[in-house]
Amino acid sequence: MAPEPARAPLLGLAAGVADGLVLDLGHSSIKAAAVRDGVLASTTGMPVPWRPFDTSTWPSPDTVLGLVVEAARDAMDPSAPDDRDLEVRVAIANYVVDGLLDDDPTYGTLRSRGPDPRRVLGHALTRGLRRPCAVTVLRNDGAAAALGVRSAQPAADARVGHGRHDDQGRGEATTAVISIGTSLGLGFADA
Questions:
Q1: What's the rounded Cα separation, in Å, for the pair 157 and 170?
Q2: Which of 42, 71, 73, 123 is an S-S bond match for 30, by CB 3.0 to 4.6 Å?
Q3: Is the dihedral of CA 116, 121, 127, 129 positive or negative?
């Protein structure tokens, strides 16, 4: 069990970031947190105005982007310098394959604003935060959570090429995360 399961996608996205913003676009809330000097700040969250899985209540893509910007604003320190490019990493409750969203009636509707969701989100955040923003990572929320998990067991045979390896050839077993939230999710760190 993760020590902070509600923040697991944000913690996974924040791994290795010195300064930036991490977002978790879920079906029941949008969460955001700043990363300063490699430390994840407190999480801000806002409930979404739709009913999960009732696509008749799902808002327009522009409304979704507005909510993302609002959550990001709430998470950012207004006294922090705003002239530098802001690295943004996003977890999303949608299938993400080769950087593209699955065409579904929820977050998949962002595809109508452009083929690359990283650019769509980055453009909306740049306008809304009034500073250059680049979405460098877009992962399914389960896969994002898996990024923060480290396996204590080495891979059975590190020489085979499965899992990750350090410079001495020791491997790390593939990590999977099963999430139980608004719905069930599954993610792999190396997906």
A1: 8
A2: 71
A3: negative
Angstrom distance (rounded) from CA 54 to CA 14: 31
Rg (CA), the chain: 17
Could you give the CA distance from residue 137 to residue 184 in angstroms, rounded to a whole number? 22
82: Cα separation from own chain's centroid: 22
Query: If 0-12 CB within 10 Å is exposed, 13-18 middle and 19+ buried, where does residue 173 land?
Result: middle
Alpha carbon distance 40, 81 (integer Å): 17
Query: Is 85 strand, coil or helix?
Result: coil
What confidence tens digit (pLDDT) does each residue in 116-149 have? 999 999 999 999 999 999 999 999 988 888 887 7
Is there a contact between 107 and 92 (Cβ–Cβ < 8 Å)?
Answer: yes
Residue 152 has pLDDT above 50, yes or no: no
SS (H, E, C) 117-156: HHHHHHHHHHHHHCCCEEEEEEEEHHHHHHHCCCCCCCCC
Question: On the CB side of 113, how many CA atoms lie within 13 Å of its CA?
Answer: 19
More confident residue, 151 or 135: 135
Q: Going by DSSP bridges, is the β-strand pair 29-36/44-47 parallel, antiparallel, or unpaired?
A: antiparallel
pTM listed for this prediction: 0.82
pLDDT band at 182 (very low <50, low <70, confident <90, very high): low
* pLDDT score, position 156: 43
